[in-house]
């Protein structure tokens, strides 16, 4: 953001440090022991629990809540982590309000579900705070597996493979592991350096080596990996960013929302992070919400989120939309950007209203803006010779690609819904399939 920081209107220190600290405090503070017991007591412990079906990682939710209610939160954590090794982070960022909690019988009957996400965090935090890693590594198989991408899918795959006795080497383009958990989610959802703590805890399984600053296609080739390792898993995410397709979008002040979020997550001093006075975010997903809310929390006076479809079509959940509105973000729907206006630097952005079929109506409006964030989706980079399905790597079964010996999962692979919890499930399941395949080879 260095160049943009010199643009008039984009400055740092809009709010004093103490106010920034309050603004970026934990969105959902952890439950204490009494609160956890009260929350757990509301669970019906359904035999055929719909919340399990709604969880992409199939966590036995009634079991872990019962374990909390009987005073054994560490056992509850093992129940969670056996299915979702990143259960602590997922408890913080997973849209539980549209998954397990929406399916909760209490939600159906009373409109107030069991606080599943917060209970999951309570259990996993208790175990991790004690430094306990409840899994042990099997005897070495002598097999080596390369994992490309140290995000949720790659980490989940690596842990399960290491647990099975394989040696795993993770390659990642970033300077440290974590992927979107470290670089791509709102700072108020994961506080206190939790993403790195979780990675360090996960590595206690042993058998995993991490190589950072190494990207597929930049000195690292699929053919080279296949020659060196017995299997390859790709969890490379979506590194490219879609263009707006609007005239003048190359003007100073227009930047990628993912870059803004990553810079914010890595900032040691938020008071030094520049933000505009009039900020416009374009998009309707979680990235757009995270960028808009955080711009407001940094002290932007006016923040407007503009989405080309209606609110009911936004990928961001109603909870996230309401969160944005509660922080003072204005949401404008059924409008697409057509022109970025300014003499070198951004001054305004023009939109045209669209109907439900995304057809232009001919009606336009302008928003004052000194900073615009693009959050309109990301694209795949570095897929090489792998067959694609749409804009993602085509996979079948548990992540098998068109190339023998190569698996893929997470945001880069077809069929998923771009959620952290889904990426974990896909990485885990691919690891099981890789293990079966390697053992069948004898």
General description of the model:
- The chain has 442 residues and is an alpha/beta fold.
- It has 3 domains: 2-25 and 241-377, FAD/NAD(P)-binding domain, CATH 3.50.50.60; 33-129, Fumarate Reductase Iron-sulfur Protein, Chain B, domain 2 (Orthogonal Bundle); 144-238 and 380-440, FAD/NAD(P)-binding domain (3-Layer(bba) Sandwich), CATH 3.50.50.60.
- 36% of the residues lie in helices and 18% in strands.
- The strands form 6 sheets. Strands 3-2-1-6-19 form a 5-stranded parallel beta sheet, with helices on both faces.
- A hairpin with a 2-residue loop joins β17 and β18.
- It is globular and about 65 Å long.
- The mean pLDDT is 94.
């Amino acid at each position: 953001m260095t160049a943009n920081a010199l643009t008039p209107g984009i400055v740092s220190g809009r709010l004093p440090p103490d106010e920034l600290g309050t603004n970026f405090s934990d969105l959902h503070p952890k439950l204490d022991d009494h609160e956890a017991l009260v929350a757990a007591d509301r669970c019906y412990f359904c035999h055929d629990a719909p919340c399990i079906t709604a969880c992409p990682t199939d966590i036995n939710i009634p079991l872990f809540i019962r374990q909390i209610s009987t005073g054994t939160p560490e056992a509850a954590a093992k129940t969670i982590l056996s299915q979702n090794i990143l259960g602590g982070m997922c408890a913080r960022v997973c849209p539980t309000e549209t998954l397990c909690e929406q399916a909760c019988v209490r939600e159906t009957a009373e409109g107030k579900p069991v606080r599943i996400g917060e209970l999951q965090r309570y259990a996993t935090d208790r175990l991790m705070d004690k430094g306990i890693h409840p899994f042990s590594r099997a005897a070495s198989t002598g097999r080596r597996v390369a994992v490309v991408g140290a995000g949720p899918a790659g980490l989940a795959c690596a842990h399960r493979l290491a647990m099975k006795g394989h040696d795993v080497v993770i390659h990642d383009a970033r300077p440290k592991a974590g992927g979107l958990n470290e670089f791509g989610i709102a700072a108020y959802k994961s506080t206190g350096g939790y993403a790195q703590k979780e990675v360090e805890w996960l590595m206690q399984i042993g058998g995993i080596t991490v190589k950072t600053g190494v990207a597929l296609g930049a000195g690292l080739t699929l053919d080279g990996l296949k020659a060196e390792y017995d299997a390859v898993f790709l969890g490379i995410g979506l590194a490219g960013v879609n263009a707006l397709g609007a005239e003048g979008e190359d003007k100073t002040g227009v930047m990628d929302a993912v870059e803004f979020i990553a810079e914010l997550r890595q900032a040691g001093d938020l008071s030094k992070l520049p933000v505009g006075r009039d900020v416009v975010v374009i998009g309707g997903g979680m990235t757009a919400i995270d960028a808009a809310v955080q711009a407001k929390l940094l002290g932007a006076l006016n923040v407007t989120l503009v989405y080309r479809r209606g609110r009911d079509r936004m990928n961001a959940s109603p909870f996230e939309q309401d969160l944005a509105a509660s922080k003072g973000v204005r949401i404008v729907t059924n409008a697409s950007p057509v022109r970025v206006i300014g003499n070198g630097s951004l001054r305004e952005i023009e939109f045209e209203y669209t109907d439900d079929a995304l057809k232009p109506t001919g009606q336009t409006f302008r928003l004052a803006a000194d900073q615009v964030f693009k959050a309109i989706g990301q694209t795949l980079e570095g897929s090489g010779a792998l067959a694609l399905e749409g804009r993602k790597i085509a996979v079948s079964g548990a992540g098998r690609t068109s190339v023998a010996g190569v698996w893929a999962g997470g945001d880069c692979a077809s069929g998923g819904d771009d959620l952290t919890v889904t990426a974990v499930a896909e990485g885990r399941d691919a690891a099981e399939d890789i293990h079966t395949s390697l053992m069948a080879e004898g």
